[in-house]
Structure formats: structure tokens, C-alpha cells
Model the fold of this input.
Amino acid sequence: MVKNTAFVFVKPHAVTDKVKELVKKGLEEKKFTILTEGSLDSKVIDEKKLIDQHYYAIASKATILKPTELNIPKDKFKEQFGLEWDEALASGKVFNALDACKEFGLDADSLDKAWAKCKADKKLIKFGGGFYCGLIEMEGKEPFYTFNGFFMSMRSKFTAPGVSIYYYVIEWDSSDASWGDFRGKVLGPTDPVDAPADSLRGKVFADWEALGLKSKPDVGDNGVHASASPFEALAERNNWLGASLAEDEFCKQLLAGGMTEATIKAWCVDPQIVIDSEGKKGSTFDSLEDMDSDKCAEKCIALHKLQTN
Done:
């Protein structure tokens, strides 16, 4: 039986010595073995686009892919903006969020405010999950179209000068805690208001001032991140730490079950895959949440077979 292995990190807003001590002590008291720990600073996170890969489904439209590489529903674009997509591209006024900031001299906050305005003005369209386009209009600048403009504000929390994350790779036996209990009871729910008092997020929320945080934690800045499944943990270790897939014990189970390293790597950015015998598609990560390693490996292999039928 392969043990559960997760990737946990203290988010930039909460990286203080006291929070790091709290997280380490909290994990060890619950029988989690810390295999390795360390820090990654904003310069590395920015240059290697680690946070972009972490939030790939959103970030791919905002920072990684160019507009010409995106699959745009042209009829929806024209219906919303009254302009053919090809004409918009030819105008030179279509950018991903990262390039829009560079082109127009914007920082993350100013783009975020402009994005909020275009949303309020109903000059924004949703093409799919995590896939938005908005017409940005700002005084003194030419109007332009951009994708997922909200992401730059999210990204800046990890890439602003001087910030960092502090990570732990942890291991434990599922007999000591299921993956569901690890997330729900040890880590705590996404909204720290709802987190158990003895969970990591609950403790950070309750004692945020004494722990040295500058503001009260909320849904986005909730202190600590942790992998939602063994597969997501594999993807995160590969992304953040450059860990080899082929040498990973969980990955070896997948390879032994007939999956290829190329498929596993492709699934690490949470693509939409076939998730049932009827051909329904859904998120890879969502399909594997809260499963312990052996069950998660079995589900991965079963899902892989659905793709090839």
C-alpha cells in the first residue's frame, strides 16, 4: 500500500515564523511525517510561472497562451461585442492579461479595477469555466479586449517583490487519517470562518494578529493550501518542486496500470476528460478529490480506460 503524500504550503500573506511553527507542529501532532520543507520566493515563482501552472485552467488564458492560441467561440464573441473575432484580432487590440499590463503600463490592481468596471458595465462574456473576455475601457487609453483580467491580482499575491511561500511535503498512513479528514479536519474548509477551531486554517483565523498577519484571513487568503487528492499532490510536487514523475511512488502505480507518463503529465493541468461511460466530461482534479492513494490510483486507471474506449 502506497502512503498518502500531499503538498502543503503557507500562502504568502501568512508566511511568518509563528505560522510556519504552528503548521509544522499541527501536522506532526496529527501523525503526519514531514519529508521535506522549504521556501520559494516570488522571483522564482514569477520567472518559472509556478503559480500560473498551479492555476492552469485560469492562468492559461491570462498569462500562458496568446489570444491566437485560444479556442474562441466566435459566435458568442460577436454576439457580445458586435465585432467578428478575426477583426478584433486584426485590430491589434486583443491581449492576454499579462501582455495587456505590459502594453498599457498597468499593474495588477489597476487592471483588476478596470475588469470590475467592465463586468459592472456588462462588457464581459463567459465562454466557459474559468474562461472570460472583457472589453477594457480606461481614461487615456485605447479600449482593448483581454482574457481573465482578474487573474493578475491573484497572481501578484505570489509574485510581488519580497513575498514567498513556505512548503511541506508530508506523508501519512490512511489508517491514521483519510484524505477527506486531512482536508476537512486537519486543514479546514476553504472559508476559514467555517473551519474547526483545531484545524490549521481555524487556528490561523482565530489568532491572525498574534501570528503576525496584516489582515484577517478570508476565502482567498485562508492561510494554508493543501492538495485535494493524491493526483493533485503529484501534479503540485512536479510543478513547484520539479519532482520527477517517473520516480514518484504514486506515479509508479499509474504507470503499472497502463497509463503513460505523457498522459499523466497532461492530466497535471486539470483538463476536461471523459468521466463516465455515457461520455460526460468533467474536471480531472474534481473527479479524484478526497481519495486515498490506492483508491485514487484505481480511479485514475479506470478513467484512463474511458478515454481510450
